[in-house]
Amino acid sequence: MESPIDEVTGQIIARHRCSKRIAFYDMDIALPAKGSSAPNRNSCSQIPSSKRIRLVTKSGDASAFEDHEALAVAQKTTLKLGNIITVKGVWESVRSPSEWPRLKCTEIVDVVEQWAAAHPGVAFQRPAAPAHTTAFASADTSAAPSTADAPEPAPIASVCKFFATTGKCHKGDTCKYRHDKTLSSRWVAARQTGRRALAAQRGDPHGDTVGKKSARAATFVAWLVAKFGAKTLSAGAGVLDVAGGRGDVAFELHTKRGIRTYLVEPRARKLSRAQWKWLKQHTPAEGPGSTAPPNLCEHRQMEFTPDTWHAFTECAAVVGMHPDQATEAIVDFAVMHNKPFAVVPCCVFPALFPYRRDRAGQLVTTTQQLVEYIQDKTGGTVEYLDMEGANQVVFRTATQ
After folding, report:
1. Model pTM?
2. What percent of the chain has pLDDT over 70?
3. The pLDDT value given to residue 23
4. Are 283 and 305 in contact, with CB atoms under 8 Å apart?
5. Measured between alpha carbons, how far is residue 146 from residues 46, 134, 136 in Å?
6. Does the pLDDT value for residue 48 go beyond 70?
7. CB 260 within 8 A of CB 236
8. Closest by Cα among 145, 3, 184 to 88
9. By the 8 A CB rule, do 254 and 221 touch?
10. How many C-beta atoms surround the C-beta of residue 141 within 10 A?
11. Which residues pair with 342 in a beta bridge?
C-alpha cells in the first residue's frame, strides 16, 4: 500500500534506464522535512537513517510524466547527474530491508542546482555508497566479502568515448569527460567483454576469439561465397551491394574475387590505403609509363528506394553490411523480386521507422529486435559472422 505524498530534496548520483517508459535514479537526499508523513515499516523504514534512496520515474497515469516523450525531455534537462532537485512522490514497498527506499515520482517541484552550471567543465563523479546499505543487495549478506577498507576503483563511466576509441577528442581540454589512456583501455575492454558475453548468451559461437572489425568486409564476403556459391553470385548482373559505404564489400567481391558487383551508395567511394596497395600489387602495367585502370566495380551514386529498384531487377543477389536506413529496403526489394539476400543489421533509427514492432508488440529500438523483425518479415535464417560488433546476418538463399 502506497504512503501519502512526501517531498524530498536531493542530488542525483546515478541513473539506471530500463526503457523509454521507466528509469531509476539514485539520490542522496536531506532527511525528511519535519511534519512529512512517516513511512511505514514495510515500505521505507530506512528513510530516517539513510540519505540514499531510489527515485522511480515512469510515464503514464499517476506520474510526473504524461508520456515517454515527456520523460525523455526531463532526462535531458532536469534528471541529470549531479543536479540537486526537489521532487514529490509516494513511497513504494521494497522487497528487502537491505534495499534503498523507493520513491515513485509524481511531480518535479524544482531544480535547486544544476551541476553543469555550478561546476563548468567538471564531470560529475558518483560518491561512495553508504556503508550500511547496498542497492539491489540480497537479504542474506553473511557470505559477502567485506569491502569497507577496499579502495574504490577508478570510475570508467566518466571516460570520453571518443578519446577511448580514436585516441583524440575534438573538444580537447574543454571536454567534461576524462582523457586517460589507462582508463580508456579499461573502458574498451569492459565494453568488449560485456558485448561478447551478451552475444554468447544469444547463441554466438565465436567466443572471445572473434575476428577484428577491420576484416569484417572480407569476413562477410567469405561467408557469402561459402553460403551462396560464386556461381550463384556471378549469375545475371551479379551482386547488388546496397549502402556499401566506402565500398569495402564491393572491393572484396568484384576486385579481389572477380564476382561482378554493383555498388549503390550516395556517397563517393573511398579506397583505403590497404586497398590502394593491393591494387598496385595486382594491377599489371599496360606498357612503359602507363598503368591499367583499377578493376573497380560500377558505382551508382543514388538512394536505394522503390523508385530506383527497376534498374536492378537482373541482379543475382542483394546484400548489405551495416546498411543503416537501407536495411529494410534491401529485404523488401529481395522479397518483391524473389532474390536471394543477406543483410547484417546494425543501426536501428526508431524515429524514422516508428511502425516497426518486435515480437512483443513494442517499438523496435535495438539491433537484436531489428534482426528478429527482419527474420520474421522475410522468413529468413540468422547466423553469426566471425567479427566484432553487430555480426548477425539475416539471409535467404535461392532454394529457401
Report:
1. 0.56
2. 78
3. 86
4. no
5. 21, 12, 17
6. no
7. no
8. 3
9. no
10. 10
11. 319, 395
